[in-house]
Amino acid sequence: MLHEYEHRGTLSMLKKYAYQLRAENFFQEKPNSTSIDPLTKLPDLTFGRKIAKELIEKKTVPFALMAIKISGFAQINTNLGFDTGDRAIYHISQLLKNFLNGKGLIYRLYGNEWEVIIAPVHRQKQIIQLAEQLIEKIQQPLQIDEHILYLDANIGINFFHPEKHKKLSTLLQQTHTALQKAKEAGTGHYALYSEEMSIDAFKTFQLETDIFQAIENGELYIEYQPKVNTKSLEITGTEALLRWNHPLRGKISPNEFIPIIEKRETALEKLNQLIIDTVCDQIKAWMKQGIKKPNISINISPKSLTSSSLVTIIKNAVKRKRIPPECLTIEIIEHTFFAQLSAAKTQIDSLQKLGVTLSLDDFGSGCSALSIVKQLPIQEIKIDRSFIHNLTNSVRDQIIVSSIIDAAKKLHINVCAEGVETNEQLQILNELGCDQVQGFYFSPAIPSEQMSEWFRKQAIAPATKTNDHGIERRKYFRIKLPLPLSAQMTILTFRKRKVSLGSTEVLIIDISPGGLRFMSHLRLPVQEEIIYGFSTNLDHTTIDLSGKIVWSQELYPGIFEYGLEFSISEIERDELIQVLFRIMPKLRHNPHFNEGNFIPHDPLIYLKKTFLD
């Protein structure tokens, strides 16, 4: 007689064996001559997708789908010819097939992409280890005749779930979304699909369809954030910040659309021309108004600094507008620039000869800052806002900032601190000898007309802080929750059409019958046509709510706060009011009330540790 643990072990073993037999039955099916890829001799896309579809329909075998993209063939085709490229594709295909050794089905899609079905799958770790091994195998030198070739790869991974993958198209879309995420991380990486990737991918797709038209249609414009002398509080210059006022979605952050533009060289060149012409026109206009040598900083993509066209655009614009080149400051971002350093040095030397000032932005955010300062004629550094955010409470941050300022002074480099939001931060920076500051304590980015007035002032006062984000806050009572409330958020509809996407965790900070305030690591558009759904538990009650985002702000790099206005029926609102009325006396009598999906952590720290660290 079997003991219970022996019985469970035997059943588990028999279950795995049954899965194995079912998988083998699928993989034993041989493709006919019309289903063989002529170049690689592997099964083709049609046959591979047929097997995947059958596995989905049967629902009896746990399996994983991998999408593999191998890079390096473009260089081989260019330098060694297409025959060598085709032979490399054949050899790598056979190498992967032999390595899998019957563990799964590999088939070619097209070009340099393959898919692999692995079945049965008992543990996620099994697939992760296989992905790592496949990448290592692909990265090994490949010899074709007298040539030694070096290839690399990215892999997207998805695990079949009977409830989530009723259609093959859903499984494929998610797997290739994961592949795209892996590619964004750089060659040699793999990524497992997560549901929040769908929200990101959907948002990016919509932006890609609109941004290139926006450049042509004049939807992009520039605002200016003042740079202030720390001691005298005089305006020393301004930073030009690109904005996009989408006709339907409203204002969209450059952090969302610049990476899309950077993928296309011609679009990036057009954008650079637009920014530099606009800024030079503005300098000329301010000089005519009697403002002496107004300085404007421009944040330039590192990709632009590897092209000679940027120097040509700046040189022509300065000459055409007849403005002093020292009125222009080119900002480069430290942590993204280092990889482009050697290729960009020639262009930077040309800019220096032209008389343009060079500034190193986000100083300290990467590990290459000192190396860049050593190699390039940097005239200004901008201390990254992450060191300023907690400056009043962190002795460590104060020591780091003090060291940066001291080193810069000895090198005769000007120092500007970004992200200054309080008087306490300003006073500390003043004591440490920082030259300039920039941040919401004085002003957000403002239109050129308002910036003109600031230039004329001898000294400026701090901005009056307001929490008015354009949402009606007095129509309903509002409850500030004692702890952040965890909720799952998804997109329900876009332009009144239902969409089926995954969900991601967000934190609700306060709630009223009319809306809620929440924090997220995702940058989301303020757009009436997108209706978001939220699901959480409060006071032992499941609450499902929906609405549109009406305001947003960035609290910390990569952490955002949003205001949501509900789009719910009066019946749903009444049900929510009942729950809120029920918890109000509990909150008054118990400040530590935590009946719901509450997170016992500071929301900013929780989101940073969960999604950014």
What does this structure look like?
The protein has 613 residues and is an alpha/beta fold. It contains 19 helices and 23 strands. The strands form 4 sheets. The protein has an 8-stranded mixed β-barrel, surrounded by 5 helices. It has a 6-stranded antiparallel β-barrel with strand order 17-19-20-23-22-21. Strands 2-3-1-6-7 form a 5-stranded mixed beta sheet, with helices on both faces. α10 (308-321) packs parallel to α12 (341-354). It starts with a helix and ends with a helix.
SSE layout:
Blueprint: H1 4-27, H2 45-58, E1 64-71, H3 73-80, H4 82-100, E2 104-110, E3 113-118, H5 124-139, E4 142-144, E5 147-149, E6 152-159, H6 168-184, E7 190-192, H7 196-217, E8 220-229, E9 235-246, E10 250-252, H8 254-261, H9 265-288, E11 296-299, H10 308-321, E12 328-333, H11 334-337, H12 341-354, E13 357-363, H13 369-375, E14 380-383, H14 385-388, H15 395-410, E15 414-418, H16 423-432, E16 436-438, H17 448-456, E17 479-494, E18 497-498, E19 504-511, E20 515-520, E21 530-538, E22 541-556, E23 559-566, H18 570-589, H19 603-612
Helix pairs in contact: 3-4, 7-8, 9-10, 10-12
What percent of residues are in strands?
25-35%
Largest sheet data? 8 strands, mixed, barrel
Q: Could you tell me the mean pLDDT?
A: 84
Stretches with pLDDT under 50, minimum 5 residues: 1-24, 465-474
Q: Tell me the structural class.
A: alpha/beta
The total of helices stands at 19
